[in-house]
Amino acid sequence: MTVAVHMRAPLSLLPLRLDDVVFEVGARRIIRGISMTLEAGPRTVILGPNGAGKSVLLRLCHGLLPPTAGTIRWNAPELPGGPRQQAMVFQRPVMLRRSALGNVTYALKRMGVPYGERRERALEALRRVGLEPFAGHAARVLSGGEQQRLALARVWALRPQVLFLDEPTASLDPGATHEIENVIGALHAAGTKIVMVTHNLGQTHRLADEILFMHEGRLVERAPADRFLKHPASREAAEFLEGELPW
Amino acid sequence: MNSIAEAAGQAFLLVATADPKLVGIVLLSLRISLAAVLIGCTIGLPIGAAIAVNEFRGRRTLTVILNGLMGLPSVVVGLVVYLLLSRAGPFGAWGILFTPTAMVIAQAILIMPTIAALSRQVVADAWEEYREQLLSLGESRLGAAATLLWDLRFSLVTIVLAGFGRAASEVGAVMIVGGNIDGVTRVMTTAIALETSKGDLPLALGLGLILLAVVLALNAGAHVVKETAQRRYG
Amino acid sequence: MVVGRRAVAALLAALAAFAAPAQDRFITVASTTSTEQSGLFGYLLPIFAGKTGIQVRVVALGTGQALDLARRGDADVVFVHAKAAEEKFLAEGHGVKRHPVMYNDFVLIGPRNDPAGIARSRDILEALKKIQTAQAPFVSRGDKSGTHMAELDLWKAAGIDLDNARGPWYRDTGQGMGPALNTAASMNAYLLADRGTWLAFKNRGDLAILVEGDRRLYNQYGVMLVNPDKHPSVKKDQGQAFVDWVVSPEGQKAIADYKIDGERLFFPNAEQAGA
Predict the structure, then answer these.
(1) How far is B32 from chain A (nearest CA, A)?
(2) Is A80 in the same domain as A167?
(3) Contact status of B231 with chain A (Cβ, < 8 Å)
(4) Minimal Cα distance from A88: which residue of B?
(5) A and C in touch (3+ CB pairs within 8 angstroms)
(6) Which residue of B has its CA nearest to C202?
(7) Radius of gyration for the alpha carbons in chain C, expressed in angstroms and rounded
(8) Residues A75 and A169 grouped into a single domain
(9) A168 and A153 in one domain?
(10) Both C41 and C79 in a single domain?
(11) How far is A190 from chain B (nearest CA, A)?
(12) How far is CA C128 from CA C121, C140, C263, in A?
């Protein structure tokens, strides 16, 4: 278990504080009052059965969804229109109809990186994930695993302070999954805070430093990974771990 | 059946002899409709994309209105533009009534709703897929609209062709604002209308066949360009 | 950069491509479909242009529409054939002076089998009465054109009140001469047409001229410069040049010279008093 504690930039986004956050869609309450703090350092994995609200929580933190009630506060807010300090990788990667290189330079352009630097940084990112030979290929014809790696290359080029991942390897084969986990590890080593939702207990074993366990929209348990996986404190967590087959 | 054969014969004759008047009319028709498409797209595509990616009150109403405007009768557009450009109207001083410029304006107004409504649909469908990722990367709504318009360029080609088809085939608007003046504002469609009203049906039909051939050729060309480009970028 | 600078430039370029071409020497003449479709203008205007360098742009509409166009100041000259409407136009102050130019005649067209039995009659009013009695299909232009107004005058002169006598036999189409002829040809109906359009018309079907030559069928054309005092945008000098030429001996001769299949269509009569 590694704990990389360091301030990435002069103004650290973290810690992120949630206070009594509620999220409703129509009459359905999906997040029922969650209060927690995300600190820099440990790789955080969010676990829970289907419908627990994990993906929604991730999106609330990233700012893709506004909370119905409660507050979500970063330590230093991102400037609107400024370069993003957080990034997100989705279960299905979304690529533009451009080359692999083009997709990464696009993200760099969004960040405000000047024209001259973009190509070099993009190529470096592609190299890092082993996709440099595909730089000129149309991104959308790459395989699922390659596209997900490309998504991570995109993240790598941005060097965000926080990276949210929503089941990034759920649709990938074991080989691709392994590669993705390597890149995530490298990002963590370079100082990015990892917050990941996964169903894969084996992956959790391999990557998590701490675990947030959710059930029916509530944060039921939070513990260091070792302790949680061996001795879950809550009944729901125990049932959950028994139901799931470790990979 | 006979008239069609006769018409085909007339069409062939006109094309084979490269009748200069015909060439002039065809070129004018193309210039006007292509200019109208250019303007219609420049305004219509961003509007469609902007409506698709922004959430605001009254969006649904606006979408319904936009879709409804696709059915704008060309004569109505012609009449309104005529009243605007007439000497007695607000923009009479511009002096562009009965000129090709007026025809371009009328056609652009006619096809803009179609281009906006269809692009709105195409962009909205794609937005479902792209929304979270683009916003996550820090795109503004407007920036996302622009990015999507480029990303969807192959689908948009079809929309542009639809706009061109509507512009090239309409007669009501250009007749009123252009006046069908011989050598100045006579285009394929108004020429066909004229020959029909003179009772020269084979000639009218022949011109119609030529118009059809020109439009089809343009569509075929666009298709080829689209296919080759698509193969490159998936 | 959604509607960026590039897009705006493209827009302006497209419009500029059509900005008023260097052709400043042109006038707009509002005239009727009969003069255009008979081919008279196609013959006459190049002669005028060759002499003066002024291009004449003809917008061909029905007489009523042509005069309305001029009332809005959208034409420099009107050249139509409905004396009463022209004089009203003049009285309203929209025109400068009315000059008679030429006349042609109307002919009563009908199916060869002639259900109303009027063929070769020399009395148009009698013929119309017979058509109404027989309730034979009759196509009217119904578009406030000179021909339409002449037709209405003839019904009135025949003592027939159209509002009462109207029935499914009277087909009010609201169309120009050509389309009305097309309609009559497909319906095998009677209609009143100007000789010029008839001679140039190709889709005759089963129709032929049944009544002609009655003096009441004569159709007078007049030309007027639109009043520049009321409509400052009117091209006064060039418009007047056209009016002057058309009634000049040279213009009148050109009109007389125009023939279809050796047959003269229009008879110049600018000199005729009271025309």
Answers:
(1) 32
(2) yes
(3) no
(4) B136
(5) no
(6) B199
(7) 21
(8) yes
(9) no
(10) yes
(11) 20
(12) 11, 13, 27
Check: CB of residue A225 under 8 Å from CB of residue A235: no
Question: CB of A215 within 8 Å of any CB in chain B?
Answer: no
Chain A nearest C-alpha distance from B215 (Å):
29
Answering whether pTM is above 0.80, one says: yes
What is the spatial distance between Cα B28 and Cα B14, in angstroms, rounded to a whole number?
Answer: 17
Domains of chain B, first to last: 26-187 (1.10.3720.10)
Q: Which of C58, C68, C72 has the most B C-beta neighbours within 10 Å, making it the best mutation to test the interface with B? A: C72
Substitution target from B28, B115, B181 for chain C, most C beta carbons within 10 A: B181
Question: Measuring CA to CA, how many Å separate B3 from each of B16, B201, C186?
Answer: 19, 8, 15
How many domains does the structure of chain A reveal?
2
Query: Residue B234: its chain A contacts at CB < 8 A?
Result: 97, 138-141
Interface of A with B in 134-163 (CB under 8 A): 138-141, 154
Q: What is the mean pLDDT of each run of 10 residues along chain A (247 residues)?
A: 47 90 93 94 93 94 94 86 86 93 94 89 93 93 93 93 95 90 94 94 93 94 92 90 65
How many alpha carbons lie under 13 Å from residue A140 in its C-beta half-sphere? 12
Q: Could you give the angle at the alpha carbon of A132 between the alpha carbons of A82 and A118, nearest 5°? A: 30
Q: Do B233 and A98 touch (CB under 8 A)?
A: yes
Contact C202 B142 (CB under 8 A): no
Domain count, chain C: 2
The Cα–Cα gap between A123 and A137 comes to: 13
**Structure tokens of A172?**
């990938």
Q: Give Cα C123 distance to the centre of its chain.
A: 24
Instruction: Using a threshold of 3 CB pairs under 8 A, tell whether chains B and A touch.
Output: yes
**CA torsion angle A174 A177 A179 A180 (round to 10):** 180
d(CA C104, CA C218): 6
**Cis upstream peptide for A15 (omega within 30°):** yes
pLDDT in tens, B29-87: 999 999 999 999 999 999 999 999 999 999 999 999 999 999 999 999 999 999 999 99
Same domain, A167 and A67: yes
At which residue do the structure tokens 């009218």 appear?
Answer: B204
CB A197 within 8 A of CB A49: no
* Residue C53 and residue C114 share a domain: no
> C55 near C235, Cβ under 8 Å?
no
In a domain, C11, yes or no: no
For B143, the closest chain A residue by CA position comes to A110
Contacts of B35 in chain C (CB under 8 A): 14-15, 17-18
Which amino acid would we find at residue B204? A
Q: Taking CB atoms and an 8 Å limit, are A83 and B138 in contact across chains?
A: yes
Angle between helices B201-233 and B188-197 (to 10 degrees): 160
Residues of C in contact with B149 (CB under 8 A): 2
Interchain contact, C74 vs B88, CB within 8 Å? yes
What range defines the domain where residue A103 resides? 95-159
Whether C13 shows a pLDDT value over 80: the answer reads no
Q: How far apart are CA C208 and CA C189, in angstroms?
A: 11
Helices (H) and strands (E) in chain B, counts: 10, 0
